[in-house]
Amino acid sequence: MRRTVDIAPGVRLWSEARGPADAPPLLLIMGATVSALGWPEEFVDALAARHRVIRYDHRDTGRSTRAYELRPYRVADLAEDALAVLDAHGAGRAHVVGLSLGGLLAQLLLADHPERLLSATLIGTCALSERPLTAPDGTETAVADLPGVDPRVLEMWARPAPDHGPEAELDRRVAHWRLLSGDELPFHAEELRERERRDIEHAGRHDVTTAHRRADASGLLRTAELARNTVPTLVVEATAEPVFPPPHARHLAQAVAGARLVVMPGIGHALPRECLRPLADAILEHAGRAALPHPAPSRTGAPPRTPVLKRRTG
Fold first, then answer.
1. For the whole model, what pTM was predicted?
2. CA atoms within 13 A on the CB side of 34
3. Do residues 100 and 76 lie in contact, with contact meaning Cβ atoms separated by under 8 Å?
4. How far is CA 241 from CA 186, 195, 201, 268, 276, in A?
């Protein structure tokens, strides 16, 4: 079921719900500049076997309004958009899965609207917290000293993206995903090209937006609120992550009270075919445990025992 969501005068979001209407809602929040179609169909279908899965196009992506030039917005406003999408689909509370920027928005929901969340899963993101990372021996690392973005990714982000037509844009997107995917798993260029081709057809345009990069990112820290979190939270650590490399995920799992950490070997800042089933299984298992008593964080601040998802191929 597809539905448009009016969030402000002249600003409309495209959304879709899949799965049984009476199943627990699960909201997918994608990363910056990527539409809802960034969630692979196989992954959405796996989650929809047990949930009513809702995904949507952020402002300035996909079929949603290209809004920034006329109505500049804050990153925090995008978190409120997620609530508007839930409201439009009649979901008072939902499991939320956020990737990259979506993981930041999910943290804002954890901090500011915990009553709307049944659980949260955070993937490929960093903590909205100033709390230092604490190693097993008690050594602390300040947030500013955690590793930064892979220089190859930064170099590509710094380059302008001139419009040389749809095929050239597809080339650029595939090259971008190749860098984001890391160096440990095979890169399936043709699959990514077809996914991006469908995204261009979905949007009806191929030009690049920089709106999310320009949105006001001030006022996002939620150190104290995340330290008081009571929503069951799962943090996914991707070992080949080039944007928020390890130990960012471990830091995030410490910053969000009670969070569990799951390690996915070989995965980068993308959703390759190798990770889709294990990631869906981890989310389904996490959502299924959400009604159980939430374990208290350890006195050392370390996340609970970390399961490891074995790499799948094929």
1. 0.91
2. 25
3. no
4. 14, 21, 29, 4, 16
